[in-house]
Amino acid sequence: MADKGLKGTIAYGIAPHEGGTTTFYSNLAEGLRERGWRVLPVSVDKPFDPKFTDEHHISINTGSRNLNDKVRLFIEWAIKENINILLPMFETEMLIALPYLPQKIRCITRCANIVRSAFIVSTLYLDRLSFVLTSSPRQFNLLHSQWGVPLSKLKLIPHGVDTSLFNYNPQKYRKNNELTLLYLGRIEDSAKGVMWLPSILDKLKKQNIAFQLHIIGSGPDLIKLKKAFYHYGIGEKIIYHGSMERAKLPDILSKAEIFIMTSRFEGFGFTLIEAMATGCVPIASHIAGVTDTIITHRVDGFLCPIGDTEKFAQKIATLATDPQKLAQMSQAARQKVENGFNLERMVTDYDQVFTEAMVMPPVSFSPHSLNRVVLPKELQPTWRTKIPQPIKNTIRKWVFRITGRMI
Questions:
Q1: Which secondary-structure segment (H or E) carries 313?
Q2: Distance CA 43, CA 25 (A)
């Protein structure tokens, strides 16, 4: 018998791992449960990190390599669990299942970035979708203007952070009078631009600015990054924390003075608002329609051209030598999050969207036959996968400079 107080059951696809995506969904799910939703994080035949799961996580192990079997077993599970709303995300089997699901299940996608693959995933079965969710104006505008998503299906909901957990700390402590810098995120260069960090810090060293950089996270370029720091003679200035439990994160963020975000592209920048909530002043890549919708340049942080290590070092040096300006920007950063990026507002917005989806008639759609499940050509490997990553990064940089578009 259904719970009379239950608004509905939401399933979202995720293989829990370290990073902002898992944190975002965990926070959202907890808030939605408090508002009467049953929320299930689901993975299908995917490895995941148990450290980042909770008692709600469902791991569906099909025991099959056959795509038909995987999709069929997932759909059987969804029907059995009486799923009302599905957000497939990057779970391939769940995404492929969209045109085969019963019409009564409302399907909603969420665009997670500003790169081509994110737009493909969020618009793949557009006729089957009730809504496409975005977190930044740039995603919203591109999905409408270049990917053909009707405005009636688009929703813009910026991320939010729990300001009661990420407390503002106006009294930052400098050990040995060293400026406390922080990088938080995946240690990889293709998206996060971490290999620019050594050059930035080398420029600070040449200006005789004392600093320590705390690095939280793990990833494929960690060893390469460590070697680069030692190459510049600053290896002893770096403190590595590795993957960190979410409960410990607010404390270390509250002690940092400056947060460095060197990303080439982001869908939003969740770690950015976490840092700002504690009064950690951000110096971030200027990703149009994304980071400039969070940071007000020179007020609560600085925006630098992507990959411009000279500008990053210059802005850090400005704050290192002007404690009053650093304190003012720290307070403004906290205020920005309290006013525009708090968790309560975000959860309320999602609650309203899901409630709207439930009261709307299901989209007019005839489910496909499960006799033969086909992998869409959009999800099949292309020539792009064969291009070495350094060349991809160079191409992205020049295309962005010429057209203003990130590919």
A1: helix 309-320
A2: 13
Q: Decide: 259 and 280 in contact? Cβ < 8 Å.
A: yes
| Distance of alpha carbon 120 from alpha carbon 95, whole angstroms | 11
Distance CA(54)–CA(385), nearest Å, equals 34
Number of domains forming the structure of the chain: 2
Q: What is the domain extent for residue 189?
A: 175-340
What is the Cα gyration radius of the chain? 22
The CA distance from 87 to 188, in Å, is: 27
Q: What is the model's pLDDT at position 51?
A: 72
Query: What average pLDDT does range 204-215 have in this prediction?
Result: 97
List, in order, residues 6 or more apart from 402 with CB less than 8 Å away.
none
Structure tokens at 299: 């007020």
The residue length of the chain stands at 407
Place of tokens 């403190």: 239
Q: Does 352 map to a domain?
A: yes
The torsion angles phi and psi of 60, rounded to 5 degrees, stand at -95, 110
In this prediction, residues 274-285 reach a mean pLDDT of 97
Read off the CATH number of the domain in which 102 is found: 3.40.50.2000
Does some domain include residue 221?
A: yes
Residues 150 and 28 in one domain: yes
The answer to whether residues 316 and 204 touch, using CB atoms and an 8 Å cutoff, is yes
Contact at 8 Å (CB) between 290 and 136?
yes
pTM above 0.85, yes or no: no
In this structure, the answer to whether residues 259 and 334 fall within a common structural domain is yes
Q: Are 310 and 354 in a shared domain?
A: no
181 is a domain residue: yes
- Could you tell me whether strands 211-216 and 154-156 are parallel, antiparallel, or unpaired per DSSP bridges? unpaired
Do 15 and 105 fall into the same domain? yes
Rounded Cα distance, 342 and 365, in Å: 37
CA distance 351 to 344: 11
132 inside domain: yes
The Cα–Cα gap between 339 and 263 comes to 25
Q: Tell me: do 309 and 258 sit in the same domain.
A: yes
Rounded to whole angstroms, the Cα distance separating 133 from 158 reads 10
User: Which pLDDT belongs to residue 1?
Assistant: 40
Which CA distances in Å does 180 have to 176, 187, 230? 10, 19, 19
Specify whether the CB–CB gap between 91 and 44 falls below 8 A: yes
pLDDT tens-place string over residues 46-103: 877 777 778 888 999 999 989 999 999 999 999 999 999 999 987 889 999 999 999 9
